Amino acid sequence: MHYFRTISLFLATSASIVSMASAQTAAQADRATDSLPGDIVVTAQKREQSMNSVGLSLQALSGADLQKRRIDSAADLVKAVPGFTFTPSPYATPVYTLRGVGLYDSGLAVAPSVSVYMDEVPLAYPIMTLGGTLDLERVEVLKGPQGTLFGQSSTGGAVNYIAAKPTSTFRYGANGSLNQFGQVDLEGFVSGPISPTLGARLAVKTQQGGAWQKSTSRDDKLGDARFLTGRLLLDWAPSDTLKFSFNANGFIDKGDPLAPSLIKVAPTNPALIAPGFDQSKPARRPRDADWPEGYPDRDNSFYQVALRGDLNLSDSAKLTSITSYQKAKADEQLPFSGTPFPYQNILHFGFVKSFNQELRLSGDAGPLNWIVGASYEHVKSDDHIRYDQRIVSNRVIIPGLPAYQDAHASIAQKNETYAFFGNLDYRLTDRLSARAGLRYTHNKTTGVGCTFDDLPSNELGFLFEAIQASIKGSAVPIGPGDCVTLDDNVNPGPVPLRLSEGNVSWRLGLDYKLDNGTLVYATVSRGFKQGILPNVAAVQSAQYDPAVRERLDAYEVGVKAPIAGRALQVNASAFYYDYKDKQIRGTVLNAFGKLEREINVPKSRVFGLEAEVQMRPIRGLNASVGATYLDTKITSSISTIPGTSETYNSDGVQIDAKGARIPFAPKYTVVGDAEYDWAIGGDTQALVGGGLVYHSADNGSLATKAVPATEFRIKPYTVIDLRAGLQAADGRWRGTVWVSNVFNVLRWNTVFRTIDDYFRYQDRPRTVGVSISYRP
Question: SUPFAM superfamilies given for it (predicted)?
Fold first, then answer.
């Protein structure tokens, strides 16, 4: 009943907004001197529409907005998109969450809950998304289950980058920035026709320097960027009915990995802890972190080639083909404790490569817009994580045997996915439209998991021989590099993995439009995210058991209302997500301590409210504010150990997770931005502006009142950014001085527990810089 009352209140408020919008007069329209961002043309439904004509929860930012707010990566979307969160992982894979729907997993080939695209081409895995914000026309963020239109099926939503396209005349531009830590960012493009039928655009960006982390044990710094990304676009129109678009892009990342920040030392076996380890200094300030001397290193890369063809079969039908191939490679050495000791230092390396093909037919037959299509994806990956165990306090498992020094976890897998989809949008009347979409997806994944000892001394192999002998009286010999993971018969070896799944996702919607442009919409949809195979250090083969597909049923109502002649735009929505088999990383306990496996949460739910206001009340002032409220809950008990009802949180503490909030889903998120410009002479304007981000408290682990998991608490934070500068009235050039995190707020987005300490990844401190851009 609580949710029905809340939704009723929301609908009453929405009705008031609609009433206000309907009452506006033509005189009020004269007050608005410019159009609001709501007029951005988007392609969220694979055809061009005004953003406020789309009955979906959607947010779009123009390329100019991205530059003003200094949104340089998908992680920076937290500045502009309420309900969007970014969480760093220990490896190269970022984690994106929308409205509390996400998957915290750092495997190279783990399909995300929030899909990312470049011009409708999937950037299939999170490691591939790092260079996506280069030279953009806009970015579109769709919230809720996706799949009936976009190539990948997802439960959380989708981020679609739209690259700036080749121009009909010669154009060029550049922008750059420098901050107090010495980081230099430079970006530029050239664009224009090569022949009457061929256009090109080349864009390049580099980020160099800027070490901002300070060691808590010595005079040392970390955090230098060494990042290069580029994109070449070619548009060829050999005839009036045929067009090809080619996209080649990629990046090289040799920058310093982020070092952890120590929370506290908590050894499992104090007698075996390394001398001095317990004297390591906790982080107190935003820049505080620690790492072993000379250890962090990175050499990651990615490239993608894509070809799109559009053939107009008639005035009302078009055939589209999108073909792409992409490959990401990781090769990095990572600190893993927040101390100056070589504690569980990680060597992470591997690759993931993907081939995608989509073919679709679309048409516009009067009141009916339709799409039918099919897609195919083939993925191959190899993912390795090697842990240095030399000073871990539980390295002696059986007294009398040598301590093991090394553990290497690996998984090689192949994945094939094919799908068939269709979508209809029918205008029933001038005001009322109905939408329906359907998608069938089949996914097959096979792989091999293996945990082994790389070292010739082979202490881990000898240990597992002893474990076999103690259980069954005999042992299969294990040599260096042989898999130690034990099956149900206590025999070691590689673990074959297989997962085959099919699903049907769908969407139904109604849109009602008033004369003044106000849109009221309601949608019901079902989305799926494919099952996953984990890369974990596995003692038992059951740790490699896959997490099966997750399902999310979404119910949403919303309104998009232009007010006062578009001087004010109000968008609001209420939603309820019914979650089945949500995928999370679970914890298992054994003699080796706290290990991991993928599990499914049988039942959980998300209830939320969301609102965004964009305003231009007077000439020169642009402001926006958005907020999301989430009430999440796990509504069933779960098990992290097969065949039992036992569940452990990230601290290894037994917990009944029923009633717990979903981790990494803050109850409140608020974002805001404002800028005011005014003429100071000629075509020059002065400007002042700023932004705000607020996230309420969160937790990086399963937590309840009985088991609060306080060590994993993510504290609330408010971050304010400021900027001031000069610009040309026509936008040709712009120069600003800016301050990020003005009040030097200490903030973090995740917490980890190793065998012997707790650590977190902290966000950047107060940073002062200058930026310039030039677009003649």
Answer: Porins
